């Protein structure tokens, strides 16, 4: 009889906390008024917001180890697991593509024109590719080989970005528009299919997906270690804290030569954020799974079990609501969600607090929906 994969409540909690934070920073009431910790670093550096995406990819890696660990020793099952992983990759990529192409104004929608200009990279697209490649590596390599693969990825990416000359520009550099990754994105995707805020580079570009795989594999190794039944829980937590702290320190040291940068997903960024994620998960594991202090976890577990679903829907529904136009006194038209924000938040708060209050209400609104799904055991697996 096949046993169900072991499940960590702390992992669901950590995933839920991460995706709820992701939704919070992605949905302010006013993009012009945001508290500094809820914004990305302008280029080099790392704010709390810059931790969210790597934490999620780290969690994807831990989940791979937990979901597939028991079948890794059976090579006959690898083909079926990779088929499922490939289908999931296609599904996630398609969902990300829908978010990229879905019109803000349905009446102006033209499929052919949209396809000519739609952004191809994106958050869900990166998750999909990283998930499949990491699954393949996990199934085909030993733990030591995975560790060596991470080192190879980080060193190779550092060498590419720091020493390979950029065609049509000159010396290797780490500037926004002239680094090697930006050149590769413009060459393979063209400016029409890149991030609309720049059109010359993309924060989820092709080359920076390579170290993002390193982030996910980091999580894979942590997941494999957490699953070891022969190791006592206290020992696991102690070692994870030590490893996490060492990686944070290594990332900060490497930052002196290869700056921590989310948009470039630098090797120092992988170590720094991977170390913090390891510490965060170890702390959650010790409190929630080992000591059974779990009453506070429910709101985040509710988010965690339907993480991809809520991320997709929170990206789609604002566009749907804003397709409903409301006539304003000056003769202009305002989207329904924008109208809701303008009428119920700025009149009662300062601009920056109104923006934050809206984001919090948005989180609570979706919590109610997710709580009802959780109570009915509705878990949509993407």
Molecular structure report:
- The protein has one domain (9-375).
- Helix content is 62%, strand content 2%.
- It is built from 14 helices and 2 strands, in the order ααααααααααααββαα.
- The protein has helices at residues 9-26, 52-68, 78-101, 111-117, 123-140, 143-163, 180-189, 209-226, 233-255, 267-290, 298-304, 307-322, 336-344, 351-375; strands at 325-327, 333-335.
- A two-stranded antiparallel ribbon has the order 1-2.
- A hairpin with a 5-residue loop joins strand 1 (325-327) and strand 2.
- Mean pLDDT is 92; it is low at 1-5.
The structural domain count equals 1
The number of distinct helices, counting runs of at least 4 residues, comes to 14
Approximate shape: globular
Average residue pLDDT: 92
Q: Outline the low-pLDDT stretches.
A: 1-5
Strand elements, count: 2
Rg for CA atoms: 22 Å
Structural class designation: mainly alpha
* H-E string: HHHHHHHHHHHHEEHH
Q: What is the terminal separation in angstroms?
A: 25 Å
Residue share in helices?
55-70%
How much of the sequence is in beta strands?
under 5%
**Physical arrangement of strands within the biggest beta sheet:** 1-2
Tell me about the biggest sheet? 2 strands, antiparallel
